[in-house]
Amino acid sequence: MRIVLRSSLSLGLLVACFSSFAQISALFTPYDCREHAEMFYDEPVAEIALDSVAAVVAVEEPIVLPDTIDGWKTWSSVENYTFGKDRGAMSMITDVQALHPFFRDKIKQLMAACRENGIELAVVESYRTHAKQNEYKTMGKKYTNSGAGRSKHQYGLAIDVVPIVDSVAVWDNVALWKKVGVAGEKLGLRWGGRWRKPYDPGHFEWTGGLTSAHLTAGIFPVVPDTEYPCMEEDLKLLLKYWKAWEVTQSAMTRR
Ligand SMILES: [Zn+2]
């Protein structure tokens, strides 16, 4: 009798677990249920007296938090020639989430300001790994003068954009670039359209007054708590994600 009760009880538990897995996997896809399933199979069934059945049935469902460790995998990226130009073999991260939080806000403002004036901007590249930077370096001066770690892109403090007209990236409309550039400068951003070597009108950056030497030393711009209260936590997570991309792309270099 006792054995029958125990097995039907554990069956009930298993059924309850699977139905909650189905719900959870619908919430957080892709969801790999294997390790959680193992967790339940390993769990010894406790000796339970008859009058405690109700309590056991009401046992709390396991809390499964959305996986934040792998958030970097969901960042949008594009492949070479997406915007009509040769940008090398490694994919480019285009997600604004990959940017330093304060700079990210500025870029969102820039895109909104341009949209208000009828200019649609596409992100060509936001954060850039050291491996990707090295790839540009080998592609020549037309691409960059800076080696790995020397571009603001490696700190999430630079972005490359391009205006899109009739679904096509427009790289050579100087008047259009000027409008975009001025909008960025109004937000306190540094605009690559003022440079000559190379002229880089799609490039915007912001360092809060820091130099490249500060950035390579691991110092990030100080942003007042009133502007962005949880900067430290967000940066910590970003650094983790950047590292994950770095590991992935530097593995491509070695191949
Ligand atoms: Zn750039």
Write up this protein.
- It contains eight helices and seven strands.
- With 255 residues, the chain is an alpha+beta fold.
- It folds into two domains: 2-57, no CATH class; 71-254, Muramoyl-pentapeptide Carboxypeptidase, domain 2 (2-Layer Sandwich), CATH 3.30.1380.
- Strands 3, 4, 5, 6 and 7 form a five-stranded antiparallel β-sheet that branches. Strands 1-2 form a two-stranded antiparallel ribbon.
- Helix 4 (101-116) packs across helix 6 (174-186).
- The longest helix is centred in the first third of the chain and has 26 residues, at 2-27.
Summarize the structure.
The protein has 255 residues and is of the alpha+beta class.
What's the CATH C level of the largest domain? Alpha Beta
Structural class: alpha+beta
Q: Report Rg.
A: 25 Å
The N- and C-terminal alpha carbons lie at a distance of: 63 Å
List each distinct ligand once: zinc ion
CATH topology of the largest domain: Muramoyl-pentapeptide Carboxypeptidase, domain 2
Report the sheet-strand fraction: 5-15%
Flag low-confidence runs: 1-46, 52-57
Domain Peptidase M15C: 145-206
Keywords: Signal
Protein name: M15 family metallopeptidase
InterPro entries: Peptidase_M15C (IPR039561), Zn_M74/Hedgehog-like (IPR009045)
